[in-house]
Amino acid sequence: MKSLFYILLACTAFSLACSDHQSDEKNAFYIDSIATPEGLTAEVAALDALPDGRIVATFMRGEIMIYNPETKEWKLFASGLHEPLGIKAISDKEMLVMQLPELTRIKDTDNDGEADLFETIYDGFGMTGNYHEFTYGPVQDRNGNLYIALNSSSSGGGMSDELRGDTLMIGKMREGNAMFSVVPYRGWVMKIDKNYKVTPFASGFRSPNGIALDAKDRFYVTENQGDWVGTSPLYHVEEGKHYGHPASIVWTKGWNKGNPFDLPVDTLDKMREKPTVIFPHDLLANSPTQPILIKDNKNLKAFDGQFIIGEMSSERLVRVMLEEVNGVMQGAATVFIQGEGLRKGNNRLVFSPNGDLWVGQADHGWLGDRGIQRIRFTGKTPFDVKGMKIKKNGFELNFTDKVANTENEPIDSLVQVRRYRYHYHKKYGSEQIDIKNIKINKADWSKGRKQLNLQLEPLEKGYVYEVALTKLKNENNTDSLQNKLVMYTIKELRK
Question: Which of 427, 425, 462 is nearest to 244 (CA)?
Answer without folding.
Answer: 425
